[in-house]
Amino acid sequence: MSKITIGRQFCGPPNSGNGGYVCGVLAKGHEGPVTAVIRAPAPLDVELDLRARDGASVLTGAEGAVIGQGGPATQDLPEPPVVPTLAEARAAMAGYIGHSQRVHPICFTCGNERGEGDGLRVFPGQLAGAETGVMACTWTPHAAFADAEGTVASEVVWAALDCPGFFAWVEREGRHGALLGTMTGEVLTSPRAGEEYVVLAWPIAREGRKETAGVALIDGEGRVLARGHQVWITMAPRVPTAAPVGETVSA
């Protein structure tokens, strides 16, 4: 068993860990594709336990409550439907919804209020000429997320692929409320700091409250460096509360 702390820098929502980053932590030490399941929000700046159990990595918090678990993949990984060029991905970034709306501005992955070297600044937009929901952008990893040789940490790669899958469904359906439940991923070749890559995401299917998406990291030569399959759980719509007589309730 080891002790780990997810620092506030790696938040998704303001008070819990970025889902892709947490999944990447759960994937470390496993060979090949890994399926990571998030059971509860990961608290920030709190010492957590990470232990091996039955071939899986289990992250627990206070009183042994399970936060997440990662082990050998239980889901096949999808192939990218298209392979954009760097120029096409750069052009798609202009359509990132966060440029015109306040959407998760402090998220480690997609927050546009995070500076270089503090957040990843992954800003996916609709890819021109592709089906609705196929999102792309470029990402140039900062040296702050790499080792002395320039190799980017695997959990940071998982984080970079997190939010684009969410935005694929935002673009497809216009819905904002969803949480990452499961991510199956594999880093085939580690990216390097200072080099520009394509991040691609696309919607796959919806079943009830589950929305599945594919994600990939692609280099300038069109080679897939990392890929993933995500399951997003849509949040139930809010039920309006009763208003006092004479007042109205807005949805």
Q: How is the topology of this model organized?
A:
Blueprint: E1 2-5, H1 19-27, E2 34-38, E3 47-53, E4 56-60, E5 66-72, H2 86-93, E6 125-126, E7 135-139, H3 154-160, H4 162-173, E8 178-187, E9 197-207, E10 210-218, E11 224-234
Antiparallel strand pairs: 1-3, 2-5, 2-8, 3-4, 4-5, 6-7, 7-9, 8-11, 9-10, 10-11
Helix pairs in contact: 1-3
Q: What would you say this structure looks like, in words?
A:
By secondary structure, the protein is of the alpha+beta class. The chain contains 4 helices and 11 strands; from the N terminus they run E-H-E-E-E-E-H-E-E-H-H-E-E-E-E. An 11-stranded antiparallel β-sheet has the order 1-3-4-5-2-8-11-10-9-7-6. The model is unreliable at 238-251 (pLDDT under 50).
Give a concise summary.
This protein is α+β, with helices and mostly antiparallel strands. The chain has helices spanning about 20-25, 85-95, 155-160, 160-175; strands spanning about 1-5, 35-40, 45-55, 55-60, 65-70, 125, 135-140, 180-185, 195-205, 210-220, 225-235.
Mean pLDDT: 93
Poorly predicted ranges (pLDDT <50, ≥5 residues)?
A: 238-251
In this structure, how is the largest beta sheet organized? 11 strands, antiparallel
The arrangement of helices and strands along the chain is EHEEEEHEEHHEEEE
Strand content: 25-35%
Total beta strands: 11
Which geometry do the CA atoms define?
globular
Compute the gyration radius: what is it? 18 Å
Keywords:
alpha+beta, eleven-stranded antiparallel beta sheet, 251 residues, 4 helices, single chain, 11 strands
